[in-house]
Design brief:
This protein has 392 residues and is mainly α. It has two domains: 323 residues, Up-down Bundle (Na+/H+ antiporter like fold); 48 residues. The protein has 15 helices and four strands. The strands form two sheets. The protein has a two-stranded antiparallel sheet. Strands 3-4 form a two-stranded antiparallel ribbon. A hairpin with a 6-residue loop joins strand 1 and strand 2. Helix 4 packs antiparallel against helix 12.
Length: 392
């Protein structure tokens, strides 16, 4: 959690640098850099992609690999282990995905319907960063709830990317990818814990998905989910999943995600803000994240607790949950990622990105105010008596 929250600082800094650079007299150099072509390999199967695509399709695969490892660990030994423990963040995340999508469609209509997946996303680093800024006096259970919600949110985003935002499928290559994943599962079941083997399988799966028309970052998620959960990395005596997470997490949080923000946050604010103000896409994204997220999270959480499906996070109040709902509205990294996939028109992509930036800033500020107020209220309520039971 410390890595997540502190990496959010670099993420914000990279986004600000991109905005300043793209709106400076040197803006052409920004766009020329990220649209320059980089080739890998030679001959018929050489990959020739823009530098931005290498970041989005290549480096972000490592980001999604870490997400897959986190999901794997959470369901085997973490906050989502067990039916009752997993129910609340799963239900809250579903509310935080469905309601923003409905809000987007209600505002943007069917004309720009492909953008409905954008406001579904939650940025784990920035959401936890807001909680860290507010202070350690917040209930630990609230942090665990928000982390679990964000993990389930990532699962939803991955499914949406795979199903909705992938191009026409080349079935031969998709079969190749399926065979590779099958081999990976067999290797996992056989207790194989040789990292080079999994790296090689992951590289083949990435290329096969790319050629199949499925977004190749899905390979990272799949390999993370397929990593041996019970196997131990013999040299360190720690579970292989945990070893990989600790090795890759700093690279993902402190290098890959900031580079992604640098490559994707450079929108023209001069004409872009004016266009965004009259854009149904921008308003759909903004209201989906700013309004739809907290409503969905809080409403489904209350339903789950009232119906007896799950217990409320220990020592939390309705205001805590409202603050967590607004923190979930910070949809920066994955929202920007989906915006690039949803629209072909650069102008529409720019409008969506401006809305994502605005909604993330506003959601973070509201979450900080709400959670800071809940902290003061909790301290005031507990001060008259040391025997006061925690509010549920």
């Amino acid at each position: 959690m410390k890595e997540e929250s502190s990496s959010g600082i670099l993420l914000v800094a990279a986004a600000l640098i991109a905005l300043v650079w793209a709106n400076s007299p040197w803006s052409d150099s920004y766009h020329d850099l990220w649209h320059s072509t980089v080739s890998l390999g030679s001959g018929e199967h050489a990959l020739r992609l823009s530098l931005q695509h290498w970041v989005n399709d290549g480096l972000m695969t490592v980001f999604f690999l870490v997400v897959g490892l986190e999901i794997n660990r959470e369901f085997t030994s973490g906050h989502l282990r067990g039916r009752r423990a997993a129910t609340l963040p799963i239900v809250a995340a579903l509310g935080g995905m469905v309601v923003p999508a409905v809000v987007y469609l209600a505002v943007a209509g069917s004309t720009d319907a492909r953008g409905w997946g954008i406001p579904m996303a939650t940025d784990i680093a920035l959401a936890l960063g807001v909680v860290a800024v507010v202070g350690r006096s917040l209930p630990t259970s609230l942090r665990a709830f928000l982390l679990g919600l964000a993990v389930v949110d990532d699962i939803g985003a991955i499914v949406v990317i795979a199903v909705v935002y992938s191009s026409g499928v080349e079935w031969t290559w998709l079969v190749v990818a399926g065979v590779v994943f099958g081999i990976t599962l067999v290797a996992r079941r056989g207790g194989l814990d040789l990292l080079p083997v999994y790296v090689a399988l992951g590289a083949v799966a990435w290329y096969a998905l790319h050629e199949a028309g499925i977004h190749p970052t899905i390979a990272g998620v799949a390999m993370g989910l397929a990593a041996p959960a019970g196997s131990r990395f013999t040299r360190h005596g720690t579970p292989l999943i945990e070893h990989l997470e600790h090795r890759l997490h700093p690279w993902s949080g402190f290098v890959i995600v900031p580079v992604f923000a640098l490559a994707n946050s450079g929108v023209d604010l001069g004409s872009g803000v004016g266009d965004a103000l009259s854009s149904p896409v921008a308003w759909g994204v903004l209201l989906g994240l700013l309004v739809g997220k907290p409503i969905g999270v809080v409403a489904l959480t209350r339903i789950a607790v009232t119906a007896g499906w799950a217990d409320a996070p220990e020592a939390t109040t309705p205001r805590h949950l409202l603050g967590a709902g607004h923190a979930a509205g910070i949809g920066f990294t994955v929202a920007l990622f989906i915006a690039e996939l949803a629209f072909d028109d650069p102008a529409v992509v720019g409008e969506a990105k401006i809305a994502i930036l605005a909604a993330s800033v506003l959601s973070g500020a509201i979450a900080a105010v709400v959670l800071r107020g809940s902290r003061r209220a909790g301290q005031s309520a507990s001060s008259p008596s040391t025997d006061a039971s925690p509010s549920r």
